[in-house]
Design a protein that fits this description.
about 25% helix, Jelly Rolls
């Protein structure tokens, strides 16, 4: 019986640790070792971070316009998009524009492509921080504002997955079976 309780405790601890890891904050600085330069459309490099893909986004090397590490992505003259593979929360990013008076504008959308938050610099400053407090962000769209804009140091929290009812039922059935086997062994 002690062995069964110990195994259940280990399994529960591992489950909690896995869920906590999914909800941990993630930071992408776009200078990760091995990250591809150039167009990111269709690349899978950032999937382990929770990024499903990009559209009209180009990763470039060092750029002094960016306030953090100087690496990032820009929209190549179009609206660029960061697509997440699951719901994200507390999304933020540093941004930079190519000239004074250029407005940086970005929007956050949910899974159904419904606007959940937006940010506009109003043409003030050459760089700054854009934040979205929504808890169900699936994509970020950033616009050129009439000139090239770039983003860097993308921060977000993976919302974590909620166990499906079938998964919970299977776990419950397994616990019942383990209890029945233990009881049968005692009789």
């Amino acid at each position: 019986m002690y062995t069964l309780i110990r195994k259940l405790a280990v399994a529960a601890t591992m489950s909690v640790a896995a869920l906590a890891a999914q909800a941990a904050p993630v930071t992408i600085t776009f200078n990760e070792a091995g990250a591809p330069l150039g167009p990111l459309d269709g690349t899978t490099f950032y999937q382990s971070y929770g990024i499903a893909g990009f559209t009209q986004a180009v990763r470039f090397g060092f750029d002094g316009r960016l306030p953090d590490d100087g690496f990032g992505i820009y929209n190549n003259g179009f609206s660029g998009t960061v697509l997440f593979g699951e719901d994200m929360s507390n999304v933020s990013m540093t941004w930079a524009v190519s000239g004074s008076g250029v407005t940086f504008h970005a929007e956050a959308y949910d899974l159904n492509n419904v606007l959940v938050a937006d940010f506009s610099s109003g043409g003030v400053g050459l760089s700054g921080l854009a934040s979205f407090a929504a808890s169900n962000v699936r994509s970020i769209v950033f616009h050129d504002g009439g000139a090239q804009v770039a983003i860097d140091t993308l921060n977000f929290t993976r919302s974590g997955t909620v166990p499906e009812p079938i998964s919970l039922a299977l776990v419950g059935m397994g616990l019942v079976a383990a209890g029945a086997a233990r009881r049968r062994k005692q009789i």
